[in-house]
Amino acid sequence: AIAKKHGMITVVDGAHGLLAQPVDEILSKVDIYLSNAHKWASCPRGIAFLHCSCPQLRDTLLRIPAIVSHGIDDGFFNRFVWDGTRDYAAALSLPVVLDYWQCQNPEIVREQMKDMLREGVQLLSEVWHNSNGNCTLVPMH
User: Fold this and answer.
1) What single DSSP character describes residue 23?
2) pTM
3) Which residues lie closer than 8 Å to 27 by C-beta, 6 or more apart?
4) How far apart (Å, rounded) are the C-alpha atoms in residues 4 and 50?
5) pLDDT tens digit string along 8-23?
6) In the chain, how long is the greatest CA-to-CA distance?
């Protein structure tokens, strides 16, 4: 809100945000959101997405992609979609993977991850600290 008030462009690198938090809430508050999808969405490496809610930015700041191909003058989507002779099989998996995660109910998955994190912290705390509260080094085998 402060950035918008001062006319600043807001960009979020959401590399760890896809499944960790509700992305819809963030998309409505920022100008540009980009993220890889291999960490949290279980996509093949190299799969990412760029969301830009502002048409003005799409036609100025994002006008020229890093690799220019035949779609350069055919709108925002076509500027970035096909950039040569690469194998696009992994990229084509993104819609299916996103549908899968939506069917898994991201809220439930987030709660399960939080529960597992709490259990892990408790387990490590018990292993690493003795009854006096002192840290105990556990030899690695």
Assistant:
1) H
2) 0.60
3) 33, 51, 53
4) 20
5) 999 999 887 777 778 8
6) 69
Please name the residue that has the structure tokens 């696009």. 88
- With tokens 């490590």, the residue in question is 124
Buried b (16+ CB within 10 A) or exposed e, 53-86: eeeebbeeeeeeeeeeeebeeeebeebbeeeeee
Tens of pLDDT along 41-69?
Answer: 778 887 888 889 888 888 888 877 777 77
| Residue 43 token pair | 């996509």
- R_g over Cα of the chain: 21
Q: Is 30 left (phi over 0), alpha (psi -120 to 50) or beta?
A: beta
